[in-house]
TrEMBL record:
The keyword Phosphoprotein does not apply. InterPro entries: CB (IPR044068), DNA_brk_join_enz (IPR011010), Integrase-like_cat_sf (IPR013762), Integrase_catalytic (IPR002104), Integrase_recombinase_N (IPR010998), Tyrosine_recombinase_XerCD (IPR050090). This is Integrase domain-containing protein SAM domain-containing protein. GO terms for molecular function: DNA binding. It comes from the Archaea. The lineage of its organism: Archaea, Methanobacteriati, Methanobacteriota, Stenosarchaea group, Halobacteria. It comes from Halorubrum californiense DSM 19288. SUPFAM superfamilies: DNA breaking-rejoining enzymes. Keywords: DNA integration, DNA recombination, DNA-binding.
Amino acid sequence: MSLEPIDPETAVELYLADREAEVAKATLYSHSSRLGHFVRWCDEEDIDNLNKLSGRTLHEYRLWRRRDGDLAPATEKTQMDTLRVFVKWLESVDAVVDDLHTKVRSPVLRDGQNVRDVMLDSERAEEVLGYLSKYEYVSRPHVVVTLMWHTMMRTGAVHSLDVDDYDPDGQYIAVVHRPEAETTIKNGTGGERLIALSNEVCQLLDDWIANRRPDVDDEVGRQPLISTSDGRAHRSTLRGDCYRYTRPCVSTGECPHDRDPDDCDAMKYTAAFDCPSSVSPHALRRGGITHHLNSDVPKEVVSDRANVTGGVLDEHYDRRSQHEKMEQRRRYLDNI
């Protein structure tokens, strides 16, 4: 079979145009988002012709995407299943060799594996935030971890924030979907919202903006709230901040795994995720949601604040035990 050259971006555009009449807009948006990561990987790997795809390169993408997105098995399966459909479509337009889609592997989920239980509990969060407040006050990681815990925002939402999205007088921050400026948020415009902030968080943001924030614009002339000397902090930078400062040895000086910090690979700046006790932003978000629920914040309020439906909140985020839920209900009964 003679293959016809095609670049990744063009291929995805043609695929989405072909599927437009077959699937719902939400499905099309999901496929576009998932395949966007594949296009990004191809660009990083200098793959400008999909004729070059093989079982090995597809496996390399799977491993890269798992690390880059800190994916749960269920999410990884969804991403790779979409890629498999895309590769099968590529076969139909003579862009890749026949049956290549059979080499796209994805996890086989066991019962209950669609739910992750890893989270940063309230006690650990207090340790981490206490350390940052005392020893690294108004550092970028201090601002990032504080926002993730108190607002329960996803990494993409934190990444999207501009200085002007913060209203110090109204004490809130606006989460805005701006695809034209390459700062998208999950659920698109449906994820846009205003999030109220406490006095403490506002004071931190005020000090960050006034004294520590690198005064730079991003590539399109916007002023990112979370910036580095090079512009808007990359999502991987935000994830790294979370992994690095949730390593127990950083905030407590002790290692629960009996490792020597001088010899521990997880002490390297880019390898903090290798620490068994460090957690991802997703686990931080899950812990923040559970903390709010344990603090008697109504589920509807948590749902709106974190931009997650009640059903998804119950299944994927609420980590309260049945005993904890019972004791919370008991407090209401005592007032009757």
